[in-house]
């Protein structure tokens, strides 16, 4: 991939475009902090700095590109209004700044879009049109409305104005932490990493740019490497679950990005959980992809001074709760034990005594007498419990087995 430190003139974006974007949008977006994480640095072996783009007003970096684009439209175009297809952060960023500037905004969303996202977008003053079951169907309808109503389509990533706006993230990071030698950036359509790589490769010293994609949606990885891995599935990183990356962004990525790594769903879940526990900050799956890369590819980044973009914080609260509980289960602090008992008085009492002896808190008990392959006098009991750590759980299981019980743990995928 990228070897040339200077962007070729043929690319659709230059560092001057990004600098001009920074001048345009300055004062209208949050200049988010870039802060060191000492705990994550110790955990990963790299010196880790976090760029908190989840602190933008709409909780995502997408505001930058949307605002940069709106500010370059002439008055007549602004008066007619703009349109986009999005079920995520681009919709909210465009709606918020369009409303602030007095530009009518129409957003086309797929019908299955969660109600909370529809309401958030409408709360910023946008007209929301629900059309189609997929993003592709919503996109096609948006282009149809663009032609019928004389609106201006604002692409979520494949537009030099969008890319330039997103690149202002890197200008701020390098201004705040001049010693950064590696930037780890989530890739969906490629707008963010295109802008960031343009800035990084124009620096007066080598700065490595590494993209991150979910294993379930390796679209840019396929495009650059000529592979044909499937792009499908329910990924936690829905913000970068893009089946077709941009044509313009792919040019920039191929020329300037040094590497693209893939991360698993488990690594994404761990990263979201760690950021809540360690940094006390909420990020969505895509926003945690950079940290997931460090967790999954540790030797690749060890010893480097790494800047990670926490690109968004819009995660459903129920999904976040599920991720945190699953992380507790994987670490052994939350467990479900399946225990075989004899169906006689006092059986559960004697089991509970062993939990008490090991100072383990019982959260829930579920008896199963009917739907089991055991004899009629046997039963299965599932006990959900809280422990201090994996070693504490192991001691409990050993205590139950010493007491004569058959015990197994109900494991997560």
UniProtKB/TrEMBL annotation:
Domain ACT: from-to ranges: 336-413
Listed InterPro entries: ACT_dom, ACT_ThrD-II-like, Ser/Thr_Dehydratase, Thr_deHydtase_catblc, TrpB-like_PALP, TrpB-like_PALP_sf
UniProt keyword terms in alphabetical order: Lyase, Pyridoxal phosphate
Protein's name according to its UniProt entry: Threonine dehydratase
Family affiliation: Belongs to the serine/threonine dehydratase family.
Catalytic activity: L-serine = pyruvate + NH4(+)
PROSITE patterns the record matches: ACT
Cofactor(s) it depends on: pyridoxal 5'-phosphate
């Amino acid at each position: 991939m990228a070897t040339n430190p200077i962007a070729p003139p043929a690319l659709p974006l230059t560092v001057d475009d990004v600098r001009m974007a920074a001048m345009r949008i300055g004062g209208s977006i949050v200049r988010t902090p870039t802060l060191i994480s000492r705990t994550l640095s110790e955990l990963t072996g790299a010196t880790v700095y976090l760029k908190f783009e989840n602190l933008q007003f709409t909780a995502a970096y997408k505001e930058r590109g949307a605002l940069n684009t709106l500010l370059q439209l002439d008055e007549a175009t602004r008066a007619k209004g703009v349109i986009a297809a999005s079920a995520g952060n681009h919709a909210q960023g465009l709606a918020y700044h369009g409303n602030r500037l007095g530009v009518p905004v129409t957003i086309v969303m797929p019908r299955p879009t969660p109600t909370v996202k529809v309401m958030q977008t409408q709360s910023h003053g946008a007209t929301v049109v629900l059309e189609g079951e997929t993003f592709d169907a919503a996109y096609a309808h948006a282009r149809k409305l663009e032609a019928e109503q004389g609106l201006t389509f604002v692409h979520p990533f494949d537009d030099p104005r969008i890319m330039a706006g997103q690149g202002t993230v890197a200008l701020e990071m390098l201004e705040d932490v001049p010693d950064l030698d590696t930037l780890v950036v989530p890739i969906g359509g490629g707008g963010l990493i295109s802008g960031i790589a343009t800035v990084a490769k124009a620096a007066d010293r080598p700065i490595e740019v590494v993209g991150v994609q979910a294993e379930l949606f390796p679209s840019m990885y396929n495009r650059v490497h000529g592979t044909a891995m499937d792009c499908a599935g329910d990924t936690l990183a829905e913000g970068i679950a893009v089946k077709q990356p941009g044509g313009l962004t792919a040019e920039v990525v191929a020329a300037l990005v040094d590497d693209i790594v893939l991360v698993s769903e488990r690594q994404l879940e761990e990263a979201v959980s760690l950021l809540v526990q360690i940094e006390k900050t909420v990020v969505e799956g895509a926003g945690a992809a950079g940290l997931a890369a460090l967790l999954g590819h540790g030797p690749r980044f060890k010893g480097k001074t790494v800047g990670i973009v926490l690109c968004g914080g819009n995660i459903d609260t129920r999904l976040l709760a599920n991720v945190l509980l699953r992380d507790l289960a994987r670490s052994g602090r939350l467990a479900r034990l399946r225990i075989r008992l004899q169906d006689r008085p006092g059986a559960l009492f004697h089991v509970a005594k062993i939990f008490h002896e090991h100072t383990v808190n019982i959260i829930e008990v579920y008896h199963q007498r009917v739907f089991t392959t055991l004899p009629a006098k046997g039963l299965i009991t599932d006990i959900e419990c809280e422990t201090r750590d994996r070693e504490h759980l192991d001691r409990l299981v050993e205590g139950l087995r010493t007491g004569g019980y058959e015990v197994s743990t109900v494991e997560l995928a």
